């Protein structure tokens, strides 16, 4: 079992980036701090710090261990506050990853309000469509689109909202190329595709009465960014199939015109993932509550 003194010494050195400064903070000598860290390294079987005569830095293992220790201490502090019937106050660093297009259009207002309400919380956001390991990456939560991963045994999955996509084109494009009168006419038009030439996202639309139709056309350009695809549609480069939350503003200001409003894609879920914990920290719980109120 790890000694609390060794853990406190390690955390203090990691924060201060100095054995001497950590010793002053804890009221111990530099030698005592060094011995405590050395015992911890021996017990774990890994080196926690890179040491030179001029610098001190965490190893990869040390950085991961520090993140987990810091989170555990914060959990203990908030648990103690609950026992004392205090109101846990969000603090620390909130780390999250969010699907890029959804994050920029839907999440930024929530982050602004959260930062204003809880000024003691620092926020780190990764805008990415890639899948990250929440636990290994030291993340508090992820916001993703589509079907959740198969293995979520260590995670809580909570559906936030659902959206569908619609076809749009700019007034300029429709003026130059003509407005398609039927879905079959799309084959004569330029399509702006999400994905790559090898793995494009198919256009499968659902009629309000339940009929499913596969749409084909002249696939001119491929984009790995939904926002770039929307901008290309606004610029008159072709017809795009995009989520409603991305095109809403462009449709409202007349930059894009919806086509075949009776057709939509199947609804796609937006969901939150966070590590399974019997006690959810105040910073995460408050953020999820604000997100659900704003978007859910």
UniProtKB/TrEMBL annotation:
GO terms for biological process: DNA-templated transcription. One of its GO terms (molecular function) is DNA-binding transcription factor activity. Keywords: DNA-binding, Transcription, Transcription regulation. Residues 2-59 form the HTH lysR-type domain. It holds the Pfam family HTH_1. The keyword Transcription applies. The keyword Nucleus does not apply. InterPro entries: LysR-type_TF_proteobact-type (IPR058163), LysR_HTH_N (IPR000847), LysR_subst-bd (IPR005119), WH-like_DNA-bd_sf (IPR036388), WH_DNA-bd_sf (IPR036390). Belongs to the LysR transcriptional regulatory family. PANTHER family: HTH-TYPE TRANSCRIPTIONAL ACTIVATOR TTDR-RELATED, HTH-TYPE TRANSCRIPTIONAL REGULATOR. This is DNA-binding transcriptional LysR family regulator. It comes from Biostraticola tofi.
